[in-house]
TrEMBL record, chain A:
InterPro entries xrefs: Ester_Hydrolysis_Enzymes, SGNH_hydro, SGNH_hydro_sf
PANTHER family with a match to the protein in the record: SPORE GERMINATION LIPASE LIPC (PTHR30383:SF27), THIOESTERASE 1/PROTEASE 1/LYSOPHOSPHOLIPASE L1 (PTHR30383)
Domain SGNH hydrolase-type esterase positions: 63-249
Highest taxon listed in the record's lineage: Bacteria
Naturally occurring in which organism (per UniProt): Kroppenstedtia guangzhouensis
Name assigned to this protein: Lipase/acylhydrolase
TrEMBL record, chain B:
Protein name (database record): ABC transporter ATP-binding protein
Family: Belongs to the ABC transporter superfamily.
Domain ABC transporter: 9-237
Listed PROSITE patterns: ABC_TRANSPORTER_1, ABC_TRANSPORTER_2
The keyword Transport is annotated on this UniProt entry: yes
This protein's UniProt keywords: ATP-binding, Nucleotide-binding, Transport
PANTHER family: ABC TRANSPORTER, ATP-BINDING PROTEIN
Gene Ontology molecular function terms on file: ATP binding
Residues in coiled coil: none
Organism annotation: Kroppenstedtia guangzhouensis
UniProtKB/TrEMBL annotation, chain C:
Lineage: Bacteria, Bacillati, Bacillota, Bacilli, Bacillales
Keyword vocabulary terms for this entry: Membrane, Transmembrane, Transmembrane helix
Descriptive protein name: Bacitracin ABC transporter permease
Transmembrane segments: 21-40, 117-139, 160-188, 219-244, 256-279, 299-324
């Protein structure tokens, strides 16, 4: 007969042993999962599709730069957040995806819309809104007062080309969904050289409108006028981005345009 | 394979060098069945190093240890199977009870059963306190628990390093009684190391005396400790008495101390004659006393004075 | 074999009765409520600041905060890269409507495991491991152990096996106590919550084509497994130190110093790439699961596992060689 252990400590030892096996299993699983991820789970398509099919969620896809991101809005909502709230009142199931990146230029957006996951979202979207061009305009033309006309011209040409590409990609992925493109405004309209800056922004806005005319169901939302008379009241303290009120005004404009479109949208919905 | 059935322990040319220093040099000795063997030497003589080599804690640089016929270097498990030991202090796990300690060490030897634990606990008379934590034990109780632990595997050889160290006089007496009882009743050979001559004298059958890592004498205790130990005199007047003693042929004056004590080497049968001569010369003899030999004396005798200098 | 089981049982009994394990469990039991409360406060504060409990706006705000941090030119490039990747990941969660912070005991445990893998858990492991051999030396009981008719390597092996069991116990106990205690505040739901994994970083780009969802319970199981591996490596190194140094205090000091400097160094000098060959810079294995970018470039899961394994194996070789050969002098 051998010396017996105390049942408590035998139980304790067995528990430790069980823990060991348990953890080795977890470790093995982790290794397998990291080195050889399960093939059926390769992308996020699956869960999303399931959700889309079962509940008919309407997707609001917002693209572009800091204006869509909501920079300057203390709530961090921007126009995109406000639109989402408004749409929620009418559509019980709505999801919003904001792909905007602060400081994004048309060059970068062009690359972004080509990414597979963005293309997937474009396909699913019921509304697409975008703000683009502000960074092209004000970075390339020397930011503020000192405006280099030559540089600005070059940037405008480039912008035109990029915008065309972006809209083509969107239309290719999703021919039916309305696309709402915000126009540009002049945040320096109350500073020196305002004539020059107003003139340039005007030129860019014309370019923007001309480019969109070639595409079906692309709606330009002009905002130049919103910030023209009293920029102080609607701009954030950085004197560049809209503030809360500014975003509200932008959202109001967009909503109006969306309502005009709504019948058309429901008629053309998939 | 058991080679020499007579000897439970057989040590040959055992040496240990650490760095440049040779701590133990060419020890050769043996312990017979049922014998209590003393390993006597001053502190630092190499006793502990030797004992650690006997139980496999230290690897010898050279030499051979055979326990129960098994070579410790080649078949350590069979060799150690026959040994129970306490090296230096009886260190047990203080946060466990005496019984838990014994169970832990019992699990490490195949044949130990719960009954055997009960048995050794009774043997060392710890039954009352065996379920108390070891940290509440007195040193004597720890020593006994240490011995219980050493006895668990029914060893044929018990190795105890300074077993009475730190014990009070009654504890020492009890320990001595216990060791003798073990050797007699359980037929266990015991190897005891000590630096106290008296203890070895009272307990051991044979003794090896070790100094500076070498064995300087091996023999039965009685033999080893017999012989001329100094005789101590006290008389007055001092100078005249010393002269008388010096004149006698068989007497050597070893030392003349300031407090009036004179040490002499003198054969037993000459003492009364010396005493008579002193009386004749009108010297008043106050004490004649044969000093019992100390370890130092024996060393002096064996090494003619150069060992402990 | 039976013999070995008895030896392992002995070692477990000793460690438990010495109250080492109890101390460790107590530390966990005291600290988890503290962390739970901290987490609770953080969530509350964020909600208050945002004025809404909608996690989407919180996440959105975090993204914007991160973007703002990016525009500061005081930030070193390595950090910027990290923040950029972090933004991508947060954006991913947002885009797919998955709340990465959904409160609940499982979420807390998942976060806690990720946070504690590089320092907290290893420290607890060191408390147990640094002591397991050296305490026998300082108490003198090593003499009793080594004079048994048992080979020395078996004695050391039994100690190492006991240590592996104790490490497992610590990791599992952390998960269990974490669930039980944090659930009091956060509730016990959320085991099925889908969690992203499979983020990969190649040349500073977050590669997302292998991203997939796993239920949170599986994610926790996997990160506990990875934490176990890290802790085992730490335990093995401490074990070696415990054998070589023979003093519990010195061994613990050495291990704590190395652990802490390991985690400090990666933050202080991420450009010093040779650091990735150290054991303690590779402890954050859960980062490969969550997709948190590594501080030093060129670190992957197989790389970290290899580094940790090599250190562990070397430690074992040293530990066993020293233990079997060494004379027990004092």
């Amino acid at each position: 007969m051998r010396i017996k252990g105390n049942p408590t400590w035998i139980a304790f030892s067995l528990f430790s042993l069980f823990s060991l096996f348990f953890l080795i299993a977890g470790f093995g699983w982790a290794i397998k999962d990291i080195l050889h991820p399960p093939s059926e789970g390769l992308s996020l398509k699956k869960p999303r599709q399931e959700r889309g099919n079962s509940t008919e969620t309407a997707l609001l896809l917002t693209l572009g730069d800091s204006l869509t991101r909501g920079t300057g809005d203390p709530d961090g909502q921007g126009y995109a957040g406000r639109i989402k709230e408004s749409l929620r009142k009418e559509h019980s199931r709505i999801s919003a995806v904001n792909l905007a990146v602060k400081g994004q230029t048309s060059d970068q957006l062009k690359d972004q819309v080509r990414q597979p996951r963005v293309r997937r979202l474009l396909k699913e979207a019921r509304w697409i809104t975008l703000t683009i061009g502000g960074n092209d305009l004000f970075q390339n033309s020397g930011q503020s007062e000192t405006i280099d006309r030559k540089q600005s011209e070059k940037a405008r040409k480039r912008y035109q080309k990029n915008l065309k590409t972006i809209l083509s990609v969107i239309r290719k992925e999703n021919p039916d969904t309305p696309v709402f493109l915000f126009g540009l405004y002049n945040p320096f309209g109350d500073l020196g050289q305002k004539e020059t800056s107003n003139q340039i922004v005007g030129e860019w806005n014309r370019t923007l409108t001309e480019t969109t005319e070639k595409f079906d169901k692309v709606v330009v939302i002009p905002v130049f006028d919103l910030f023209q008379l009293n920029p102080q009241a609607y701009l954030y303290s950085d004197h560049f981005h809209p503030n809360q009120k500014g975003y509200q005004r932008m959202a109001n404009r967009l909503l109006q345009a969306m309502e005009e479109n709504s019948e058309e949208v429901s008629a053309g919905a998939r | 394979m058991p080679a020499d059935e007579e000897k439970i322990l057989f040590v040959e040319n055992l040496s240990k060098r650490i760095g440049q220093r040779e701590i133990v040099t060419d020890l050769t000795f043996d312990v017979e069945h049922g014998e209590i063997y003393g390993f006597l030497g001053p502190n630092g003589a190499g006793k502990t190093t030797t004992i650690r080599m006997l139980v496999g804690l230290i690897r010898p640089t050279r030499g051979k240890v055979q326990i129960g016929g098994y070579d410790l270097g080649k078949e350590p498990l069979q060799a150690l199977r026959h040994v129970g030991c306490i090296v230096e202090n009886p260190e047990m796990y203080p946060y466990l009870t005496g019984r838990e300690n014994l169970e832990i060490f019992g699990r490490m030897i195949e044949e130990v059963t719960p009954d055997r634990i009960e048995e050794v606990v009774r043997l060392v008379e710890l039954d009352q306190r065996i379920d108390d934590k070891v940290k509440t034990y007195s040193l004597g109780m720890r020593q006994r628990l240490g011995i219980a632990q050493a006895l668990l595997g029914r060893p044929k050889l018990l190795i105890l390093d300074e077993p009475t160290n730190g014990l009070d006089p009654s504890g020492i007496r009890e320990m001595r009684r216990f060791i003798r009882q073990l050797a007699r009743e359980e037929k266990i050979s015991v190897l005891i190391s000590s630096h106290i001559l008296h203890e070895v004298q009272l307990l051991c059958d044979r003794v090896a005396i070790i100094n500076k890592g070498r064995i300087i004498q091996i023999g039965p205790v009685d033999q080893l400790l017999e012989g001329d130990s100094p005789v101590e005199w006290k008389f007055s007047p001092l100078d005249r008495g010393v002269k008388v003693l010096e004149s006698l042929p068989d007497v050597t004056i070893l030392e003349r101390r300031d407090d009036g004590l004179v040490f002499t080497r003198i054969p037993e049968d000459c003492i009364h004659e010396a005493n008579r001569e002193l009386l004749h010369a009108g010297v008043k003899v106050q004490t004649i006393h044969r000093k019992s030999p100390t370890l130092e004396d024996i060393f002096l005798q064996l090494t003619e004075g150069d060992s402990l200098a | 074999m039976r013999n070995l089981i008895a030896l392992v049982y002995n070692e477990l009994l000793k460690t438990v009765k010495k109250k080492r394990v109890l101390v460790v469990l107590l530390i966990i039991a005291v600290l988890i409520p503290v962390f739970t409360y901290a987490q609770y406060r953080t969530v509350q504060t964020t909600i208050q600041q945002m004025g809404t409990s909608d996690w989407r706006s919180i996440l959105q705000q975090q993204i914007i905060d991160n973007q703002n941090r990016l525009s500061s030119n005081r930030m070193p490039e390595e950090w910027k890269k990290l923040v950029r990747l972090n933004i991508q990941q947060q954006q991913y969660y947002l885009d797919h409507d998955i709340n990465p912070m959904a409160p609940g005991a499982p979420t807390f445990v998942r976060k806690f495991t990720e946070e504690s893998i590089s320092l907290f858990l290893p420290l607890l492991v060191v408390v147990v491991a640094a002591d397991i051999v050296s305490s026998e030396h300082s108490a003198g009981t090593i003499k009793l152990l080594l004079t048994r008719p048992i080979r020395r390597w078996r004695i050391l092996l039994s100690k190492y096996l006991a240590l592996l069991l104790l490490v497992s116990l610590i990791v599992v106990a952390t998960a269990i106590l974490g669930t039980l205690l944090s659930g009091i505040i956060f509730g016990y739901g959320g085991w099925e919550l889908p969690v992203f994994t499979g983020f990969q970083e190649i040349n500073g780009e977050m590669i997302t084509d292998q991203v997939h969802l796993v239920p949170q319970w599986q994610y926790i199981l996997m990160s506990c497994g990875l934490a176990w591996f890290s802790c085992t490596a730490v335990a093995t190194l401490s074990f070696m130190v415990s054998v070589v140094v023979r003093s519990t205090a010195a061994g613990m000091g050495i291990m704590l110093a190395s652990l802490i400097s390991g985690s400090l160094l990666t933050q202080a000098a991420p450009s010093w790439t040779a650091l990735k060959y150290l054991a303690f810079t590779n402890l954050r294995l859960t980062d490969y699961l969550s997709g948190t970018p590594t501080m030093i470039e060129g670190m992957t899961l197989p790389f970290s596992l290899a580094v940790l394994s090599i250190w562990s194996l070397a430690s074992l070789v040293v530990a066993f060689t020293v233990f079997v050969k060494r004379d027990v002098l004092a």
